[in-house]
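Severity: low
Component: inverse-folding endpoint
Summary: output formatting inconsistent between runs
Steps to reproduce: submit the following structure tokens with default settings.
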């Protein structure tokens, strides 16, 4: 039966209600009977208008107290309360048609408070307030209370449930439907008990401002404490306790603990590298996405990285052939919110990257003689411990980060590479072309096909040089230092002439200077045609000269022969002999190492040498010898009657054209010795040696 609903009481005395038309029929003969029943009928019919307001159940514990807020309304508003009885665990007696049970409190209008225990107090009035206080209350009072009210118009039994426990009541913590991280919430610790004069306190296990209040209304009797705080994810899963505290005894009477359920995104998300060793370029890398707390649970993961990868399972990522420049990687664990982990660096070990040669000084063009400094740089290397090496045109130079030239020369120009190595590998830079600018140098005139050229052919003179920047102007000069007004690198002579023989030199000019070459001589030879013409002229001239010489010699010899004959005839002894050797043509002795290989036909008429022998007497007759010379009879061996006659002839050498000199004069030396010429006596003056020179 609900609180405030009418209770069944004295049912046997209550008349049966009849329909309205039946009542009208009884107004006649039964009028006296109806008038007698009017008071009881009105009481019953108005009993439905009793109204009560009080808590449905009151809670307390042994030794505490109970405060029962109560309001009532009688059927007749002007009706006053005549009698009030408070039963404990009452029962209705069907025999006596009345209620029975322990009476805790009784108040009558005529008798007053005859049966009022000290622990029960009626705090109401006779019109509407029926508030009652029980202090102390005992465990035996547990059950229900019956509040019996009587007025002139009727009576009513109101039931009030009373829950008295042996131990103090436990507070009840009320939480909001959802607690989210960082969103302010209010927690309530509710105790279904409140009794003025009985001091209690509610305490929280969390620090924070708490407000305690009590409620003593006909709806509820309670004490509550409200705690306002901003939950953090660390509160999730933590115990929250509300304690019932007795300030007099300074002890905890009871408490309740709940587990906080704080909704939050995944916390302490981390990206973990699974590889046991240091990662090298090209390795396979396994990553895990871990977290410490999540409410609700994580449902998916997200990754932020570049390159090729695949998620082997939720929260497990595999990177195939990791790049050397792999960027930082991060992951996110997500429920209804996503939380990103701090980025991690794979620290991929790799050989030096982006190795390059840098010109430190000078910053612009390099001129011969300048001081030059080159540096070897790189962008990345893991590990950072590296070594530097240099090469020029593929040939190793030195070790070191920098390469310096105190005074650079053109020979230092070339392609320079530096290479850097670490414990992982080695990387070489691209070749850097080092250009050295210098004025023209090492100029010379090269003649093609050679320094000696035959006339009529083609001769090319090239001004060879070494210069950077390239030569933009050449100037040619001849042996007379005359400007030929030719400004190309090559000077072509086509056809070349004898007049072109001589020394040539060139001058080269670039942006840095002007240099002259040493002279080179060009020799032009006659062609076979020219030589033939000149030889023909020379041979003709020589033949004419030879003929003239030949006829001159012939005439001279004839003249000498005539003179010799005249001289012999005039001699006193008359014994003079001239022997002419028969002409014999002899080939030149080329085998003789002393022979100069010259041959002169004029010498065929010369007398080389002869022997003259004389008889004993005038009667001796001469005879012709085997050699074709005149010969007398042999003298005695004891006597030397011979004449020795010799001719020494000097050979002549011609010019390179083999032409005889203009003067064919015979330079032969002739001498003779005459011994015992004749048998007669000679004058003393005739015994001297005579030197005779014969010229043909």
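Observed output (run 2 of 3):
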């Amino acid at each position: 039966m609900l609180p405030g609903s009418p209770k069944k009481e004295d049912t046997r005395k209550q008349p049966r209600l009849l329909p309205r038309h039946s009542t009208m029929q009884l107004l006649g003969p039964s009028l006296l009977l109806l008038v007698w029943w009017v008071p009881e009928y009105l009481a019953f019919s108005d009993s439905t208008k009793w109204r009560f307001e009080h808590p449905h159940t009151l809670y307390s514990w042994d030794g505490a107290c109970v405060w029962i807020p109560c309001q009532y309304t009688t059927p007749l508003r002007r009706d006053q309360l005549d009698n009030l009885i408070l039963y404990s665990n009452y029962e209705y007696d069907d025999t006596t048609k009345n209620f029975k049970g322990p009476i805790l409190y009784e108040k009558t209008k005529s008798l007053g408070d005859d049966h009022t225990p000290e622990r029960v107090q009626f705090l109401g009035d006779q019109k509407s307030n029926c508030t009652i206080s029980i202090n102390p209350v005992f465990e035996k009072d547990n059950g229900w209370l019956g509040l019996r009210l009587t007025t002139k118009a009727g009576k009513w039994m109101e039931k009030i449930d009373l829950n008295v426990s042996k131990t103090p009541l436990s507070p009840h913590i009320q939480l909001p439907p959802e607690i989210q991280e960082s969103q302010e919430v209010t927690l309530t610790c509710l105790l279904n008990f409140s009794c003025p004069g009985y001091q209690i306190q509610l305490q929280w296990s969390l620090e924070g401002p708490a407000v305690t209040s009590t409620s003593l209304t006909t709806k509820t009797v309670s004490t509550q404490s409200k705690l306002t705080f901003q939950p953090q994810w660390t509160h999730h899963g933590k115990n929250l306790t509300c304690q019932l505290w007795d300030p007099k005894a300074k002890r905890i009477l009871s408490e309740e603990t709940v587990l906080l359920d704080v909704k939050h995104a995944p916390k302490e998300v981390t990206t973990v590298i699974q590889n046991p060793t240091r990662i090298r370029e090209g390795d396979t890398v396994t990553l895990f996405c871990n977290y410490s707390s999540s409410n609700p649970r994580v449902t998916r993961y997200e990754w932020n990285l570049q390159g090729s990868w695949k998620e082997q399972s939720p929260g497990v990522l595999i990177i195939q052939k990791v790049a050397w420049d792999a960027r930082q990687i991060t992951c996110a664990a997500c429920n209804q919110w996503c939380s990103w982990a701090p980025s991690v660096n794979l620290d991929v070990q790799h050989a030096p990257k982006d190795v390059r040669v840098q010109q430190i000084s000078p910053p612009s063009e390099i001129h011969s003689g300048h001081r030059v400094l080159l540096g070897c740089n790189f962008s990345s290397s893991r590990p950072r411990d590296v070594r530097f090496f240099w090469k020029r045109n593929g040939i190793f130079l030195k070790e070191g980060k920098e390469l310096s030239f105190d005074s650079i020369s053109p020979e230092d120009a070339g392609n320079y590479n530096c290479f850097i190595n670490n414990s992982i590998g080695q990387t070489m830079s691209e070749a850097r072309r080092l250009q050295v600018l210098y004025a023209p140098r090492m100029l010379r005139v090269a003649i093609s096909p050679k320094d000696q050229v035959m006339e009529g052919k083609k001769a090319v003179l090239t001004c060879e040089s070494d210069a950077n920047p390239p030569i933009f102007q050449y100037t040619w000069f001849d042996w007379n230092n005359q400007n030929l007004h030719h400004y190309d690198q090559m000077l072509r002579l086509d056809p070349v002439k004898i007049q072109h023989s001589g020394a040539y030199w060139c001058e080269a000019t670039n942006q840095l200077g002007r240099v002259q070459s040493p002279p080179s001589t060009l020799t032009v030879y006659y062609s076979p045609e020219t030589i033939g013409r000149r030889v023909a002229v020379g041979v003709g001239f020589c033949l004419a000269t030879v003929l003239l010489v030949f006829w001159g010699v012939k005439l001279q010899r004839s003249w000498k022969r005539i003179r010799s004959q005249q001289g012999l005839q005039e001699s006193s002894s008359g014994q003079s002999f001239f022997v002419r050797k028969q002409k014999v043509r002899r080939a030149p002795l080329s085998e003789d190492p002393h022979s100069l290989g010259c041959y002169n036909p004029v010498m065929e008429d010369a007398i080389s040498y002869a022997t003259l022998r004389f008889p004993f007497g005038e009667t001796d007759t001469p005879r012709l010898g085997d050699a074709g010379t005149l010969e007398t009879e042999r003298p005695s061996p004891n006597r030397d009657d011979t004449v020795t006659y010799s001719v020494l002839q000097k050979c002549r050498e011609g010019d390179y054209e083999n032409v005889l000199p203009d003067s064919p004069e015979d330079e032969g030396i002739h001498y003779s010795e005459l011994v015992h010429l004749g048998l007669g006596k000679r004058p003393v003056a005739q015994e001297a040696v005579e030197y005779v020179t014969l010229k043909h």
